[in-house]
Known about the structure:
The protein is about 35% helix and about 25% strand. By secondary structure, it is of the alpha/beta class. The chain has a seven-stranded mixed β-sheet with strand order 3-2-1-4-5-9-8, sandwiched between helices. Strands 6-7 form a two-stranded antiparallel ribbon. Helix 7 links the parallel strand 4 (about 120-125) and strand 5. It is globular and about 45 Å long.
Amino acid sequence: MNPHQANQAFWDATTDWWQQNEDRRGLWQQAHKDPSLVLSPAEMAFLKSIKGKQVCVLGSGDNEVAFALTGLGARVTSVDISQRRLAVAEQRARSLGLQLSFVQADVTDLSAIGNDTFDLVYTGGHVSVWVADIRRYYAEAARIVKPGQLLLVNEYHPIRRMWEDGDGPEPRCGYFHRGPHRYTTGEGLPTFEYHWTVADHIQAVVDAGCRIVKVDEYGEALADEPRPVVNGLGLPANLLIVGAKTG
Length: 247
């Protein structure tokens, strides 16, 4: 079993747990009514004209962003590696009266989707940490964007991630220790994570054939911060990269 297959098995196995936590949080029920609950002002600046546009969300997970973009009037395709996670999202969408398309696929292999299909591709929010090949990931994302249109990446900041789930003031890994980092979950399942740097993200977007439109680092406090010490370090929570597909 390769790392992506192992991670897929983990997401399938833990779907019920995630569903319960997301239900308690309740954002999936509100995101389409108030997209600002899950989309930052930095992101919203690039989403002002998406009504009626074809938009793809890669690594959609809880689908809160997918629902928010649907609330903004976009025609959204939600892509995730876990069919069980997508089934939950589809049921939730029906309960809210939202129309989305759902595609099960690995973000490094979007062969089910044609070239130049979407007016915007959105990805981020703890997706890249699960991806073994960031260049292929962003190359596939850019391939399905129409020429001249945007690839929007909003990721948990790589520097901030160095401290995530740590036990003390020292980072859990070095900045350039890209991995794979192998962990075993409480269910006994192996998972594999990767630590991509800021430069890795930006270069991969450029190599995918995009012109960089915006790079931003923002935010300090997070509602789900694993340890308070991180806030005290003044580290950015998010890395935003916006690229326009050339050609």
